């Protein structure tokens, strides 16, 4: 059974940092591109960042570029999202997802597996 378990969310002041982790089990982790998405109250789930199978290629939403960094450790089966210079608009539930596509995808549809999410709240 595939499981993706996010952790590291919490409450932080604007300008602060958080590092999210997503631990995977039940799948051959290195064969999946991994993505982070987020959903704010009353809004649709949106793309944040994605990383290729080997961790070489990354893509970011314009809203987080130069502030967030996605990375992965295939030996530990973990994908990370380092979030710096956080803003109140970054407040959302953050989800990690796994996708078997050969190249990392920005849209939600290709992703096969999803975690339950972790809450990130940024106060002003």
Characterization of the model:
With 124 residues, the chain is an all-beta fold. Helices cover 0% and strands 49% of the residues. The protein has strands at 3-7, 10-13, 18-25, 33-39, 46-51, 58-60, 68-73, 78-83, 92-99, 113-114, 118-123. Strands 2, 4, 5, 6, 9, 10 and 11 form a 7-stranded mixed β-sheet that branches. Strands 1-3-8-7 form a 4-stranded antiparallel β-sheet, with no helix packed on it. The protein is globular. The chain starts with a strand and ends with a strand.
Structural topology:
Layout lengths: L2 E5 L2 E4 L4 E8 L7 E7 L6 E6 L6 E3 L7 E6 L4 E6 L8 E8 L13 E2 L3 E6 L1
Parallel strand pairs: 2-11
Antiparallel strand pairs: 1-3, 3-8, 4-5, 4-9, 5-6, 7-8, 9-10, 9-11
Task: Give the gist of this structure.
With 124 residues, the protein is mostly beta strands.
The N- to C-terminal Cα distance equals 40 Å
Mean pLDDT over the full residue set? 97
How many helices in DSSP terms?
A: 0
Unreliable sequence segments:
none
Task: Evaluate the radius of gyration.
Answer: 13 Å
Tell me the β content: over 45%
Along the chain, the helix and strand elements come as EEEEEEEEEEE
Main beta sheet: strand number and arrangement? 7 strands, mixed
- Shape estimate: globular
């Amino acid at each position: 059974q595939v499981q993706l378990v996010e952790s590291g969310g919490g409450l932080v002041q604007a300008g602060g940092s958080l590092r999210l982790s997503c631990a995977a089990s039940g799948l051959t982790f290195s064969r999946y591109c991994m993505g982070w998405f987020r959903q704010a109250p009353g809004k649709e789930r949106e793309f944040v960042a994605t990383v290729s199978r080997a961790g070489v290629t990354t893509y970011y939403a314009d809203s987080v570029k130069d502030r967030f960094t996605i990375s992965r450790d295939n030996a530990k089966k973990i994908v990370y999202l380092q979030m710096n210079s956080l803003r109140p608009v970054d407040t959302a539930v953050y989800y990690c997802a796994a996708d078997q596509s050969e190249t990392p995808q920005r849209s939600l549809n290709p992703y096969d597996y999803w975690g339950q999410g972790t809450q990130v709240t940024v106060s002003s």
